[in-house]
Each structure stands twice: as structure tokens, then as C-alpha cells.
Amino acid sequence: MTKIDISKVAGVAVAELAKSMGVSLWEKIKGKFKKLKVKNEIELEGIFSEYLQKAYEKISKVKTLLHNHDPKDIHDIYECVDLLLGNSRQKKTKKKISANECFNLFEMGHKLLVTGTAGIGKSMFFKHCFVNCIDKNAKIPILIELRGLNSPNKIISLMDYIYQTMENMDFKLAREYFEYSFEFGKYAIFFDGFDELNELVSQEIKKEIIDMSTKYSDNYYIISSRHDEQFSEQTSGWNDFIELQCDDLTKKQAISMIKKLDYNDKLQAKFIAALKTGIYEKHEEFAKNPLLLTIMFMIFDDSAVIPSKLVDFFEFAFSALFHKHDTRKGGFEREKLSKLDYSDFKNVFAHFCFKSFFNGLHEFREDEIINYIEDAKLKIGFKDKFKAQDFLTDLKNKVCVIVLDGLKYHFAHRSFQEYFAACYARNLDDKIQSQAVVEWIKRNGSGRRGSLFIKLLSSLEPLRFEKNVLLVALKELVCYNDGKANCKKYIRNTFDEIGCEVSNKDKSRFGIWYRVVSPFDRLSRQFIGNQFSKISVGEWKENQKLILECLFELCDVDANDSKIEQCKVALSDLDDNHKLWQLLELENKNYFDAIIKKIKELDALQDEKTFDSLLESL
């Protein structure tokens, strides 16, 4: 077997991991399968060794915004983020976990959710964990990019997809032996990008992950995603998964990360000096995020001025990428094959981002991305101005916002797609913008997918966003009609179930939950916030107690039954005159009133704007 050039430590670890699995699997399959497809444990050892070497070689080499063409060893450039454990919103009360070594991660449990904001480096963190698993001879790692399952007609199971992923890494074990090997608890499976799954397939994949982690519970299952409320909901299925949040970069970590960039020593030293003397504190929202810190560095290289607003930040970043000078070629700006100037290039790219984002696509075959570019050419009016293939080459090789990985193209980071989708949506006329964005929210919600898009669009033109999107969404949320709405309709429109979970240890401790079905609930809370009830603590506790009693009554269960874990009621089955409605209205009235207040404020602003527009026309 041909050996690849990996470190001696990794080479020894590969051999030991492969031998351990080979011996374990051989002893088991001898007694389970009558006709064996392998000769002995040595052959099994070779199969796993080849996979581990191939995977290590591929995954340990990474590209970044600064090193789009020249892959770097992850050991040399990666600054590992810490993880936070705890439900408190106060960061200082959460437990901080060093994630430099995979053993620290595994000590937290076999089922983990790693969540973080855009750009915090979740995918890079998983690559670090994969490599570290081998370096430390910990587990046989498997890295699964979940976005590859984004087919509306998904016909492949999750286990088949995992096997297919390993086959692409020269894994030659028979399919039936592979699934059987899950019983030995020797795998660490990293599922990257749950938030990148389309709504059509995400629930099915979630079920398959949960079922797999239950059936083969001795392995480790780690999932990355932007935070989603469902991870905290008692009925979501994620109950036994521990959520760990990626922490922000500290000032020390930010400086360490810049030192590792391998870019321009003098510029790095200058930027580090600026970080030490105030830039980190002044622009902490950017400097604490690895992606945004890298973009900060690029902007600093270009102009030494760091914008304070997120929308300006992305604009400066794209400008820096577009006008990027090749330091390896005497500082000359890279010539674009499309010959488009900055404004025209940006407009075409924005259309491509908008259409692909609204279609839920983040990676593309070459023919797909060419079709999007051709569509953008026609829409912008550049039918014969440039070749789509030249534009794609510019995106990949000159501006470096699109990356080719194997046979698929994807964005260097999804935040660029969301920013330029927002730029294009900003320029739509009021009616089309309202219809498009509101319909998109109905289909996707405004939480796990698209929260950055909504934030950026609302920042680009706040008044138009409030009129065209927020006002329409809020009115639909509360069934607002002719200035009227009622709290019961709001509750029916927002939730379809209410339930409770009771502690087996202490029956006085319980939690009441609602299952949200309205796609506009998260949007409303993003712009209105959580409004706490104005009733006293004593009244609130009494109301919670009465709601619990109603739930037990409706579910026909005994509150003193120690076997009760939860009960729930579908609101559609609840009689209009049932006393629970009065209790639910008291529970939700303050937030309902806040929505109505916001609707009236926005309606009043629209009336004032109409009058101002009339004056301007006279």
C-alpha cells in the first residue's frame, strides 16, 4: 500500500486506529457472516488504514479567503475557539471548555450540538477535530457535509450517505460490514452544517441522526449548526443532545490567529500592533469572529479604515477582494476575464446570490452555476457583454468568493451570499420586495436559515423593510384586519400545541412549552423582543399552576403519577370556551399587545410618509 506523506505521529496513530478496528471487526464478523468477503484482520486493517490516510491528507489541507489557491496545513493556521456550556444568557456564568483536543469534547458526552454564529468557524473547527482524532489516536473520525443531502427527492439514507462519503476517501469495506462496525463504538461522526439543510429534508435527516445515535450509542455524534430554537424545545427530539456554543475570539486569540496567517509579515505586525492598541475593543463585534477578523485584516491592508456597520463592512470586504493585489506578482491587481468594472460585477453577483439563496442553494454543479450567471446576464441587461465561464473564473480565481471543492462550487462563506442577496432584494420595488421576502419567510422562517439575510436587509433600508416586510408579517401573525385583532386568534395562529414536562424528582418543578408553527414568530421577536408579562410573580406562578392543572385534566392523567414525563394538547382540539384559553391569553397578552402597538406605530409612519411624499410632489 502506498503511504502518503503525513507526520510520523499521525502515521503511528493511523496504524494503531486501523489495527484496533481491524482486530475488533474480524473477531465479530467471523461468527456473524457465513461467507466472508475479507481474508483476515490484516486485510481489514489495510482498508481502514487507507481511508484514514486519504482522509487525513485531504482534510488537514485547508483553504481560506487569504489562501484560496494555496492550501495550508490546518495545524499551522488554525486558531481553535473555545466552547461554552450552559443555558444562562450571561456568558460569564457558562462553563468554558478548551476544544484544542478532541478528548475534551468527548468528555462532554456522546451526543453534542456545536452551535455558533456565521463566520465563527464551525466547519474549520470540525476539520480540526477530525485531524485531532487521528493525531491523538482517539477515534476513527468521519466528516459528513450535510448540505450534500439537499435534494428535494432524497433517495439515499443517511447511513448510505456516510458510506458513500467514505468510499470517496478510498474506503473499500463491504457495505454490510461497515454498518455492523458501528456496534463497536469506535467512530466519531461529525455532521457539519445542519443549518444548511433545506426544510424539505432537515426533519428526515434529524430523525435519522437521532435514530442512529440511539441504536449505536457508543459512538460519538457531533453536529454543527447555527443556533436553532428547536435545539432547546422539549419535544424536538434533541433532548439528549448537549448544546455547546462556539465562544468568541479573545483579544489574545485574535492576535494569535493573525500571527498564523502566513501572508505579509510587515502588514501582520502592523495589524497586530493596531489590535493591541485599541482596534480590537473599537471593533469587537468584528474582531471576535474569525471570518470577520480575516476580512478586517484584508480591509486594513486595502485602506486601514474599518467600518463600524455590518453592511458597510461587507461592502468594504467585497471591494477589497475585487481590487485585491497579488503580492506574489509585485502588487499588481488581478485582471478580470469578464472585463466588468466593480459596479457591474457586483450587480451580476448580487442577482446570482439572490436567486440561489431564495432557491435554498449554497453549492452548485458547474452547469448549475453557469445557468445562474446566464440568468443574471439577461436580467441585468448584459446578454453579450461577457462570457458566463469567464465570470465564474473571476469569482473563483480573481475575487475568491466562490470555491471549487471536488466537483461542486460553493461560497467561500455563506455570509457573502446572504449579504448580496439582501443587496439585490433592497433594489426591488416595494410590491415585489414585500411579496418575495414575506413568501420566503413563510417557507423558511427567519431563525435557523436566513437570520443574517433579514438582519442585513433591515439594516440597508430600515423604513422600507418595516413597511414592506415587518408590518405585513406582524399583521398576518395576529390576523390584523381593519384595525382589529384578538389574542386568541394570535395564539391559534402562532402555536399548534401546548404541553408540559414534569421533573420525576420534584413534582413542584415543571416547564410549560408551546410548539411554534407561525413562520413570523421569530421575526417578530427579532424586532420586538421578548415582552415579559406585567403581572406579578405570584400571579404568574398561579397562572402557570392553573395551566398545568388544565393540561393534566385534558390529558386525563394524575398529577401525582410518578411515571408522567410529559403531556400535551393540540390547540385545534380545544373547545373555544374552555378555561385554558383565558389562562393562555393572560400568559401571552403582553407580547400580543406589544405587536399591536408596533403595528399601529408602523401604520402611523406610513401615513406620515405618504403626506410628506404628497408635499414633495406639489
At a glance:
With 618 residues, this protein is α/β, with parallel strands linked by helices. It folds into 3 domains: 8-246, P-loop containing nucleotide triphosphate hydrolases (Rossmann fold), CATH 3.40.50.300; 251-333, no CATH class; 487-600, no CATH class. The strands form 5 sheets. The protein has a 7-stranded mixed β-sheet with strand order 4-3-9-5-8-7-6, sandwiched between helices.
Topology:
Blueprint: H1 8-32, H2 41-59, E1 61-62, E2 72-73, H3 74-77, E3 83-85, E4 95-97, H4 102-106, E5 111-115, H5 122-135, E6 140-145, H6 158-167, H7 175-181, E7 187-192, H8 199-215, E8 220-225, E9 242-246, H9 251-259, H10 265-282, H11 284-287, H12 290-302, H13 310-322, E10 325-326, E11 332-333, H14 342-358, E12 363-364, H15 366-380, H16 388-398, E13 402-405, E14 408-411, H17 414-426, H18 430-444, H19 451-460, H20 462-477, H21 487-494, E15 495-502, E16 510-516, H22 521-528, H23 537-555, E17 566-570, H24 579-617
How would you characterize the overall build of this protein?
The strands form 5 sheets. A 7-stranded mixed β-sheet has the order 4-3-9-5-8-7-6, with helices on both faces. It has a 3-stranded antiparallel β-sheet with strand order 12-14-13. A 3-stranded antiparallel β-sheet has the order 16-15-17. With 618 residues, the chain is an alpha/beta fold. A hairpin with a 5-residue loop joins β10 and β11 (332-333). α18 (430-444) packs across α20 (462-477). The protein has 24 helices and 17 strands. It is 53% helix and 12% strand.
